[in-house]
Amino acid sequence: MASLRQAMKSGHPPTLFAAFLYFDFCFSVWVLNGAMGPFLTQSLHLTPVQTGLMVSIPTLAGALMRFPLGVISQYIGRKNAAMVEMSLIIVAMLYGYYFVSSYHDVLAMGVLLGIAGASFGVALSLGAGWFPQEHKGLAMGIAGAGNIGTVVALLLAPPIAQHYGWHAVYGWTAIVMLIPLAVMALMAKEPPDIHHQSLRAHLAPLAEADGWAFSMIYVITFGGFIGLSTFLPSFYFNQFGVSKIEASYLTLLAAVMGSTIRAVGGYWADRIGGIAALAIVLLFVIGTLTLLTATPSLVLTTILFMACFAALGAGNGALFQLVPLRWPASTAVAGSMIGEIGALGGAILPNAMGYSKQATGTFAWGFLFYATLSALVLGGLMIFQRKWTSTWVGPWGRAAAAPAFAPTGGLPAE
Asked: Which 3 state secondary structure label does DSSP give 391?
């Protein structure tokens, strides 16, 4: 507890709180269609493939918007970028309330929901920007724990849709988005770690193998988290015949684990090293997904999902303990790139699950596909870590005691 207090004193907690709240509300907006999946599927008479596409569009759109927002934030400031984004989200929610009525409208609305998904790199860089290297894993974990917005969406959106119709969910969201916007305006301060580099320097992570290695790991950890979060309400509704509200609450149990463990994952990675933490996480994910192919009982399925989500959440925090160590001068842009590509994994999984169910009558092949992909990524991590620990990071991914490791790609170690 003393070390936690010391870590908080080393930075600016009000900005960290504003970043967490910003990411939390944005994340809840991002997964709205997934949370309302059973309602939309039943109302619009969708097939499993159509459902998979519907819940994956916001993920895909948000992924594609993350990197551009990260670059823009380096020029106008992360606080300003966050406030502009939240203002656009309010306009998008009003559009959903007044104009969305068909399947194709919902797909278009999914693109607008993607605006909220772009918040990732900006939120984490803003929240952690005031903190020194040795506490950035914890700070990024706390800011990133805003993905508990999934829980908020699963908890509130279904009851509102049940009693007032799913259009009302968009309307209420437009109103409550004023809360994080006000908090950001009043409490956040732009961190001093901004580096005025050329656009070429900001884009450097795109040309580096390390950036793509990090991104593939994030395809598993975050892609799995967001993909399962958006598809599980429809999975439970279809697989076990539970009510639409019960399907959302069962998903909520798993999402709570993944969201709350993220900060623990960052703290854990600060202690044992991000590489070690990620290796453990990936082994756990492979195991739980493989067990889920057996289609166990409702209770056992929920327990396995909770364990899987806990591992995925810890992995999200652990990975972003490494990012500021590798790219200290362009963390927001590197984080946005990794977040963008990783989020694309979230678009893969719902579609794989939908195609698996429609083609074979079971979801098992979708789980097996992602377990296999996780195993391949674990193998890649073991190969890359040999280079990482000899150049820019300490044993097993712990922060170096002194800035002895100079990142490649022309970025200075600080």
From this structure: coil
In the chain, how many H helices and how many E strands?
19, 0
Give residue 281's identity as a one-letter amino acid code. V
The number of domains in the chain is 1
Burial of 186 (0-12, 13-18, 19+ CB in 10 A): exposed
Asked if residue 87 belongs to a domain, the reply is yes
Q: Tell me, what amino acid is at 251?
A: T
Neighbours of 412 (CB within 10 A): 10
Alpha-helix residue ranges (DSSP H) falling in 177-273: 178-187, 199-202, 209-240, 244-272
Instruction: Judge residue 410's burial from the number of C-beta atoms within 10 Å of its C-beta, 0-12 exposed, 13-18 middle, 19 or more buried.
Output: exposed
Boundaries of domain holding 164: 13-189+201-397
Helices 120-128 and 13-30: angle between axes, nearest 10 degrees: 170
DSSP code of residue 411? P
Structure letter (DSSP) for residue 393:
S
CA-to-CA separations, 178 to 56, 96, 114, 232, 350, in angstroms, rounded: 26, 17, 18, 29, 31
Q: CATH number, domain at 306?
A: 1.20.1250.20
Quick check: is 196 in a domain?
A: no
Write down the pTM of the prediction: 0.79
Measured from the Cβ of residue 199, the count of other Cβ atoms closer than 10 Å reads: 11
Read off the pLDDT of residues 25-66 as tens digits, 9 standing for 90 and up: 999 999 999 999 999 999 999 999 999 999 999 998 998 888
- 344 contact partners, CB below 8 Å, separation of at least 6: 59, 60, 63, 219, 223
* 298 lies in some domain: yes
190, exposed or middle or buried, with CB in 10 Å at 0-12, 13-18, 19+?
Answer: middle
Pick out the chain residues at pLDDT < 70: 1-4, 193-199, 201-203, 205, 332, 401-414
Which tokens in the block code for residue 69? 């927002």
